[in-house]
Specification:
globular
């Protein structure tokens, strides 16, 4: 069974984290204001996306930043 995934905002609520707390978990320097931008809809670059995936243990995925529920259905792919 696939692991449940969350939007960044949902995951932050689940883990009781604020942008400052997440920024500290990164293996490189990241400002909390960057996390706020992602919460407002900006799509993270690959390097950031990989860290969010690692930090959340796979609970926040790249697909969670897009508002598409079913990619195949969206593009009429059988």
């Amino acid at each position: 069974m696939p692991k449940k995934t969350y939007t960044l905002e949902e995951w932050m609520q689940k883990e009781n984290l604020k942008p400052e707390g997440i920024a500290k978990l990164f293996r490189f320097s990241l400002f909390p204001t960057s996390i706020n931008r992602y919460l407002k809809g900006r799509i993270p670059i690959s390097k950031i996306m990989k860290e969010l995936f690692r930090i959340s243990k796979g609970e926040v995925t790249p697909n969670d930043f897009y508002k598409v529920k079913d990619w195949k259905k969206e593009f009429n792919i059988e």
